[in-house]
Amino acid sequence: MPAEPSGDAAGDPALPAAPDYDGAHLRHVMTSAAASLGLAGFDDRIGLPQAAVSVVLLVDGLGDEQLARHTGHARFLASRWRRGSAARTLDSTAPATTAAGIASLATGRTPGEHGLVGYDVYSPELDRVVNMLGGWDPEVDPRTWQPHPSVLRRAEEAGASVLTVSRPRFADSRLTEAVLEGGRFRGANRLEARFTAALEEIREHLHPAGGVRRGPPQPMLMYLYVDELDKAGHQHGVDSAEWIAALESLDAEAERLVAALDREVGDQVSVLLTADHGMIDVAAEDRLDLAEHPELLDGVVSTAGEPRLLQLRVATGDDSEAVRAERRTEVADRWRRELGDRAWVLEREEAIDAGWFGDVSAAVRERLGDVVVALRDSTALFDTGRIGTGPLDMVGQHGSLTREERAVPLVLLSAGSLG
């Protein structure tokens, strides 16, 4: 059975441990995959077997806890997950959300370095909240917002053939431009079509049609993205029939891919499954509309982040530091009184000092909320005055630092073991 991530922070049992950014963490997966190909400039922090082709299968929303609960519906994945030599549990990011998690996977950086510190984030340059997924502000340049080169680009420059297999609409998305740029892109909407495309690309790479290969094949790094579970979880919940059906489809396609590779190319290909975050179900009565709690928004200039990890801006650039500090403390204290043990409420510097966002650059520091509210029970908070009432219908939620949201699996699906 994979080991659990560390528990409460030493010296302060009231706070969760910070994500283990320097240890068993999601941000080391893609860089380790590149290193396993023999590419210069990368470190294998995970201990992957050497391969000619390395496939990183990112399953959006498949937390370690959710996989553990539903192994009966994922017999192939579970058979590998239970094999201690082939599986581990990793930490995701704070917040435990897609933009931050994928950015850390794709750049090898902490959220405090790459700057995608939430589903939506305050932009000091524009003085407004901007989205980090499908709704990027046209005035936000992805390459400026996130200046670090992607692992895919670095691998390509190191001599690898690089390919992303994902939904067609992500080919030229702003998130792709920000963190997943590099190599070729092959799109397919259906889950089975994406796995078929991955298999076809590997076959052609290792055994080109009509070609005669001289010497070893060029190293190949592939990023394969699956978002069906995340969509089903948000809409129906992670214990719903729809989510389980998506898991069963994933399991069948993963088994088909690995079986074909085992037959055709043996141990030349490494297939590594991981995820960006887990998820919890939030009952309708626990989805709280902040419009019905105006006392919480008193003194709050704007909100950002996730319903499970809210970032509050409580001061403006025109305020003196003394005024800003006073307002931060007043708002943080009020939220602590109102939420009690339902949430961890930290001022920005406290959250940074606690290591929640890893190393934080000066530019990213100003994007973070003055007050950070991380839910620790099954509550979610929605600022409907800013985001509308539609998100109140979402069952599955994530973003906070509970184990259900932050612990993600790392499973070597192909032959071999993790070092």
TrEMBL record:
Tree of life domain: Bacteria
Gene3D superfamilies: Alkaline Phosphatase, subunit A
InterPro entries per UniProt: Alkaline_phosphatase_core_sf (IPR017850), Phosphodiest/P_Trfase (IPR002591)
Pfam families reported for this sequence: Phosphodiest
Name under which the protein is recorded: Alkaline phosphatase family protein
Organism expressing this protein natively: Nesterenkonia halobia
